[in-house]
Write a structure and sequence with these properties.
This protein is mainly alpha-helical. It has one domain (about 1-110). It is built from six helices and no strands. The model has no long low-confidence stretch (mean pLDDT about 90).
């Protein structure tokens, strides 16, 4: 059942992004930024945490999950370190994901053969 929940929520988030791409004149970068911001805002008001508990990876993998991780990192670090945690929390909370993205991008660049135009 957890796979079905993850598929439904992840699919709904992706479908909403595709509808925004097709029906609006928003640039993809603005939509992606909006997803991260929505994840932060939904976490701030306490709505995204229960969604993550219910849907698991379906809510954590998309960009809204990255926003949730940023907000959660800030909240945890501010409780532990005070105001300085607002600067260090998001970095430490998302470091593994960012490092993995950079590593896989580097591997893809090394393994692919560039072509000229």
């Amino acid at each position: 059942m957890i796979y079905l929940k993850a598929f439904l929520i992840g699919g709904l988030l992706c479908a909403a992004g595709q509808i925004l791409l097709d029906k609006t004149r928003l640039a993809p970068a603005r939509i992606l930024t909006g997803y991260v911001t929505a994840g932060v805002l939904l976490s701030a008001v306490g709505l995204y945490g229960p969604l993550v508990k219910w849907a698991g990876a379906g809510a954590m993998v998309p960009l809204t999950g990255f926003g949730h991780a940023l907000a959660d990192g800030v909240k945890t670090a501010v409780q532990e370190k005070g105001l300085l945690g607002a600067l260090t929390g998001p970095l430490s909370a998302t470091a593994a994901g960012v490092e993995a993205a950079i590593l896989f991008a580097l591997l893809a660049a090394v393994m692919s053969k560039p072509t000229g135009k």
